[in-house]
Design a protein that fits this description.
Elements (H helix, E strand, L loop, with lengths): L2 E7 L3 E8 L4 E8 L6 H23 L5 E6 L2 E3 L4 E5 L4 E4 L1 H9 L3 E5 H12 L7 E6 L7 E4 L2 E3 L30 H4 L1 H12 L6 H9 L3 H25 L3 E5 L7 H14 L7 E4 L6 H16 L9
Parallel strand pairs: 1-4, 4-8, 9-12, 12-13
Antiparallel strand pairs: 1-2, 2-3, 5-6, 6-7, 9-10, 10-11
């Protein structure tokens, strides 16, 4: 059975799958990145995991995967197959595509984790059927994927969709990117966690705790939450002014708050638009599987454009 390897690399863990031509999930697995041992150990963990997945495919289906797709965080040069920079993994200019291709003996597609997740949401999830959409996951940071007619735009240098670094509060909180007042400093799950921990005096409190307190009417929680919603609405209106998406897909940890987030967010965006067309604002459908599913789609797309010759035993 022809299948592909799909691998989604996070800061601490990796999610992987073997995916059939029809999109069926044939096998799934998870493994730690081992980042505590350094950036080279993470690369070796990825190569080893991918090799094990290839071996499983051979054992189970009698043939190796036809291709592999891998999604990684940070800045990715899709064209040259290089992980340019990933602070949480300690990477700079890692030729990951070539390393994997050499280890596996198959074509490999490398992509950005959020763009891969956006690709999956567009084809398989909440954006299915939309010709133009914007996928925005609200997690440790905030990124975005610009979906256009079944593909995701990477930009000229691989930076397209970095909505988290739109400045929404000039002269506001400093951001590690070097700017001040970036959206992700106010509306990411980590930013809400930090603000709520300070407001309630519990250093262990997080964004999920804040959302629960909002539903119970805690005025401090409402204040913290509304601050994040207002900042998010400002950033999203800037994005929809530039991109004019038909559908706006919100995912990540903060979106798990459901209507506690979406009701005030839809209201805040509606109040801010003037001449712009209001997109449909919906929650993401694929959860934390989006990146892995997207990596599988990258591999399948690679096969569609670069057919491979099946291995023939002598």
């Amino acid at each position: 059975m022809r299948h592909v390897i799909a691998l989604d690399v996070g800061g601490t863990g990796m999610k992987a799958a073997l995916v059939g031509d029809d999109g069926a999930l044939l096998h799934s697995a998870r493994r730690a990145t081992g980042r505590e041992r350094g950036p080279d150990a993470v690369v070796e963990a990825i190569l080893g995991f991918a090799a094990d997945l290839r071996a499983h495919g051979v054992e189970r289906y009698g043939t190796p995967a036809a291709a592999a797709g891998i999604a990684v965080p940070g800045i990715v040069d899709d064209t040259h197959g290089t992980a340019v920079y990933a602070a949480n993994l300690g990477w700079r200019d890692v030729p990951l595509r070539d390393l994997l291709a050499d280890r596996l003996g198959m074509p490999v597609a490398l992509g950005h984790d959020v763009r891969a997740g956006g690709l999956a949401e567009g084809r398989l999830g909440a954006g299915r059927g939309a010709d133009r959409y914007l996928f925005v996951p609200l997690g440790t940071g905030i990124a975005g994927a610009i979906g256009i007619d079944g593909r995701v735009e990477a930009g000229a240098h691989g930076f397209a969709g970095e909505i988290g670094h739109i400045v929404v509060r000039p002269d506001g909180d400093p951001c590690p990117c070097g700017q001040r007042g970036c959206l992700e400093r106010y509306a990411s799950a980590s930013a809400v966690s930090e603000a709520w921990a300070a407001a309630c005096g519990d250093p262990e409190a997080d964004a999920a705790d804040c959302a629960k307190a909002v539903t119970s009417g805690d005025p401090n929680a409402v204040r913290v939450w509304q601050r994040a919603v207002d900042a998010l609405a400002d950033g999203l209106v800037t994005a929809l002014t530039l991109l004019d998406p038909r559908t706006l897909i919100i995912g990540g940890g903060l979106a798990e708050a459901g209507d506690t987030l979406f009701d005030p967010l839809r209201t805040a965006v509606r109040r801010r638009v003037t001449f712009q067309k209001l997109p449909t604002i919906v929650p993401a459908a694929l959860g934390d599987t989006a990146g892995c599913l997207g990596a599988g789609l990258l591999a399948q797309d690679l096969l569609a454009t670069t057919p491979t010759t099946p291995e023939v035993s002598p």
